[in-house]
Design brief:
By secondary structure, the chain is of the alpha+beta class. It folds into 2 domains: about 25-250 and about 515-535, 3-Layer(aba) Sandwich (D-Maltodextrin-Binding Protein, domain 2); about 275-505, Dipeptide-binding Protein, Domain 3 (Dipeptide-binding Protein, domain 3). It is about 35% helix and about 20% strand. The strands form 4 sheets. A 10-stranded mixed β-sheet has the order 8-9-10-1-11-18-12-15-13-14, with helices on both faces. A 4-stranded antiparallel β-sheet has the order 4-5-7-6. A two-stranded antiparallel sheet has the order 2-3. The termini are far apart. The relative contact order is 0.15.
């Protein structure tokens, strides 16, 4: 009798499951088509792709150890639902969500996390942080199937952020058993992840296609059945595809926003994705000591001569805002955001009268000559227009600007070595939106960095030395309050130097066909939509508000 009851119950469960499966499949309809200007390296192996590709298309099929705070931006739960630092600051313990699986049905466990991090650190990895990981991670221990401990050689307060897709791709979780079984070559042909979208096919130079998982997922089960990424380098073509319905979403720049809006498309702006900045090279060098740009007040005067609100209105079509200090945002960790926003609103004001007065007091009543390198990273062509606009504003206070345009591919090599062609120059630059400020400050101002804007290891003046001291203290400080104090001090050192000066806080921009895609919210500070596609509804589910 007992056997009969169990068998009957099992049959009933099976019938219910069978009845529910078609319903689940039926509520996933259509294809979400995203037209993009670049597919990066177009590889589906996380160790072979940098941030852009990982954040756009790899994010669809791979989960990251640490994820996003979807409400305010920055770091939040991911594959790990929580993490904690040991009292001595030398170990991070990550606690994984139970019940996670890869697309082939294998369970996602701490063994996969250990395997993935070690693979990112391995000799075959092209990860930008691979060398840093090898230097700072002592070992990785699987405590149990849902717990992994990462021991470090020194306190690494920013480790969780560094393993979050909010910052970098190094936290992507890959299937240990599958890769060991089929080998890396086969894995790259038929990749498997644990995200809300499963790989279908990759056509180099053309497209990448995914299909939705049909079971619940902690990031959200997709509303669309399929997701296609189309490589369309020409922006006008991408907009035309959205207008005709060939694509539902396309990435665009601010110069295209008005035209897209007039064509009846929805224009979505993602706040806090980047800062447009200008910066000075080699101001600390002995051969530049008599140059105007070696003087702090002269650099400040150049900032006062910029009408940022005009740049925001006319170059960015109003789709940007006044910035916080360099490389900081409202969601920056361990940072007094409100205090610094008030400071920035005053410090970055437009005051050409004061700018000319300062130049006269510093010995340049008739201005001076300034060489300015105008450049833009791929996908940010508006940076060139910003650079041209501020050069024009500088001429109005008497500065004679020699403007030279550089393709981005030719500019980074100028920063390496002795920087001979940039010493005494200013240049356009940009910084990406990330929740941890120290990484960018170290990259710009450390004596060992490529840019070394405060000095090098042989010429590190008082400000340079104070920066090094503050940065090192910040790297090992475990107390949250003290960490905020140190971050604020680091920001103050750089802000008061006027060597790197924010112009505006920019956004990510997308044109959307409202007949193809329903209303959705992006992640603040996250230009790319790789972690948003599963949250995007169909138009009948949530129409755009007019």
């Amino acid at each position: 009798m007992l056997r009969h009851i169990v068998t009957t119950a099992a049959l009933a469960v099976a019938l219910v499951a069978a009845a529910m499966a078609p319903a689940q499949a039926q509520d996933q309809k259509g294809t979400l088509v995203f037209a993009v200007e670049s597919l990066g390296a177009q590889t589906l192996d996380p160790i072979l792709e940098g941030r852009p590709g990982n954040a756009v298309y790899q994010a669809a099929m791979y989960d990251s150890l640490v994820g996003f705070d979807f409400a305010k931006g920055g770091v939040g739960p991911g594959v790990a639902e929580r993490w904690e630092l040991s009292p001595d600051g030398l170990a991070w313990t990550f606690y994984l969500r139970p019940g996670q699986t890869f697309h082939n049905g294998d369970k996602l466990t701490a063994h996969d996390v250990k395997f993935s991090l070690e693979r990112q650190m391995g000799p075959g990895s092209l990860a930008a942080a691979a060398a840093t990981m090898r230097r700072t991670i002592k070992n990785i221990e699987v405590v149990d199937d849902l717990t992994v401990k990462v021991r470090t050689t020194s306190p690494q307060i920013g480790l969780p952020a560094g393993l979050s897709r909010a910052v970098a791709p190094e936290g992507a979780i890959m299937p240990k058993t599958y890769i060991e079984k089929v080998g890396e070559e086969e894995f790259r042909k038929k990749p498997i992840g644990s995200g809300p979208w499963k790989f279908v096919r990759n056509v180099p130079g053309d497209r990448i296609e995914f299909t939705a998982v049909t079971t619940p997922h902690w990031r959200g089960r997709p509303h669309f059945k399929d997701l296609h990424f189309l490589l369309v380098p020409e922006e006008s073509t991408r907009v035309a595809m959205v207008r005709t319905g060939e694509a539902g979403i396309a990435s665009i720049g601010p110069e295209t926003m008005l035209g897209a809006s007039r064509a009846g498309l929805e224009v979505l702006s993602v706040p806090g994705t980047m800062q447009a900045i200008f910066q000075f090279y080699g101001t600390w060098r002995p051969e530049v000591k008599d140059s105007p740009v070696a003087k702090v007040r002269v650099r400040q005067a150049l900032s006062l001569a910029i009408d940022r609100k005009q740049v925001i209105e006319h170059v960015m079509n109003g789709k940007a805002r006044m910035p916080h200090p360099f490389a900081t945002f409202g969601y920056t960790d361990f940072f007094s955001a409100e205090r610094w926003k008030k400071w920035a609103d005053e410090a970055y004001r437009y005051d050409p009268v004061l700018a000319k007065k300062i130049l006269a007091e510093e010995g340049y009543p008739n201005g001076f000559e300034l060489k300015f390198a105008n450049t833009a990273l791929p996908g940010t062509q508006f940076m060139i227009d910003i650079g041209t606009a501020i050069a024009d504003m500088w001429t109005k206070i008497g500065v004679k600007v020699t403007l030279k345009h550089y393709e981005w591919g030719s500019f980074p090599p100028l920063e390496r070595g002795d920087q001979a062609q940039l010493i005494g120059w200013a240049s356009m630059y940009r910084t990406a939106g990330r929740p941890d400020a120290p990484w960018r400050y170290n990259g710009g101002f450390s004596p060992e960095s490529t840019q070394r804007l405060f000095g090098d290891k042989d010429n590190c003046n008082e400000t340079c030395q104070e920066f090094v001291k503050t940065y090192r203290a910040l790297g090992s400080e475990l107390d949250r309050t003290k960490r905020t104090v140190l971050t604020d001090k680091m920001v103050e050192l750089v802000s008061n130097s006027w060597i790197v000066v924010p112009i505006l806080e920019g956004m990510g921009y997308y044109a959307i066909n409202t007949k193809k895609v329903g209303q959705f919210a992006p992640i603040a500070g996250r230009h790319e939509l790789g972690d948003v596609f599963e949250r995007i509804p169909r138009p009948e589910q949530k129409p755009w508000k007019k």
